[in-house]
Design brief:
single chain, 9 helices, globular, mainly alpha, 88% helix, 0% strand
Amino acid sequence: MKHDRRNKTTNEELASSSVKKAVDGVYDLIMVNALFILFNLHILLFLLFISPNNIVQYYLYMALLSLNLLPSYSALLYAVKRKREGSTEVMSNFIKGYKENVRKSFIMGLIGAVLITFTLYNALFFYVTEMKFLYSALQLLTFFMAFAVLATAPAIVYEKGSLKEIIIKTKKSFFKLLLGAAAAALIILLSIYLGRIVIVTLIFGFALAAMAQDALYMKIIGQDKKKK
């Protein structure tokens, strides 16, 4: 009888511990996701309350406002990485990740913003002149460049060295990293789209995207180590 009670108590403690761990994990995801949104709240305010006179101004404003996207996403990725490693201080890890990677991620984001904006401006010319094939090709190139910039985030967060060294490391596994970036972008786009209907997707979406990219990056690292 005592043995049964002891087993029952142990099982209840294990169940309670599992539930607490799950609740804590969900809470951490919500908080780090909220921080990412807070760091990019200016984009939402712009989209809601400001109407540029023309599409050229719109592209320019969005390019300027998006300069903080990669630094804050890198911070989100860093917090997710530390959470996977066992840390519970997700908010302080987000701030730490932002401080440590802001310079490299800002420069990379700036390069991406300039290239994407330049491509979009050229696409407008082909749209006006009704050269639909070239317009569509540049639109696809824009998405590719956005994915390419996003693909550098894990290398910025996990790899040491200068920005040049990080770019070289990214090039070595570029297409593999591109898959992780595409997965993260898909989750983000679905979260934003579904967020108009079910707000809960926005509460988790960005953090889930970072988790997916983190998992894929760790898999890539594992494969590379096995080859060596």
